[in-house]
Amino acid sequence: MNSKVLIVGAGAAGIAAATRLFRKGFRNLEILEATNRIGGRVHTVPFGANVVDLGGQWCHGEKDNAVFELAGPLGLLEPSVVAEGNVIIRSNGELVPQELTDRLMEVAFGIMELEEIKTYHGTLGKFVTDRFRNAMAEANNQDIDQELIQQFLVFFHNY
């Protein structure tokens, strides 16, 4: 195809778009990048005697997602959940029932309001994780599967 296509950004999405367009027969492609490197938010930087990777920490969605298609089969991704408003969607697209969503959010936000958080000497993450797991072990939460509990904890830590 002879149409000229301009792609803004040489991050994962821009490179994926160029790749797909090329596979579909487009040859007149140009990618504009504002920085002096490709990769977008994903960036490796020196950190002391080592390096650390900065950038994207979530892979949103499994369908038609170039990052998921590359990293998923290599076992580099963990299943996750995303909450929009009071809706939780698992990375496979499954909608968590509203009643369950409300319970998870209520427990997590309730933990954040505990008085003992003010005098706790560990990390906030450990405080929330320990108390959330204890709450999920109670009889009224036995119907929540462990995978969803883990996915929710990852989501809430990034919230």
Structure explained in plain terms:
The protein is an alpha+beta fold and 159 residues long. It folds into 2 domains: 4-56, no CATH class; 81-158, no CATH class. The chain has 5 helices and 6 strands. It has helices at 12-23, 66-71, 98-112, 124-136, 146-158, and strands at 4-8, 28-32, 43-47, 50-54, 81-84, 87-90. The chain has a two-stranded parallel ribbon with strand order 1-2. A two-stranded antiparallel sheet has the order 3-4. Helix 3 crosses helix 4. The protein is elongated and about 65 Å long. The mean pLDDT is 85. Pfam families: Amino_oxidase. InterPro entries: Amino_oxidase (IPR002937), FAD/NAD-bd_sf (IPR036188), Flavin_monoamine_oxidase (IPR050281), L-lactate/malate_DH (IPR001557). GO terms for molecular function: oxidoreductase activity, acting on the CH-OH group of donors, NAD or NADP as acceptor; polyamine oxidase activity. This is Peroxisomal N(1)-acetyl-spermine/spermidine oxidase.
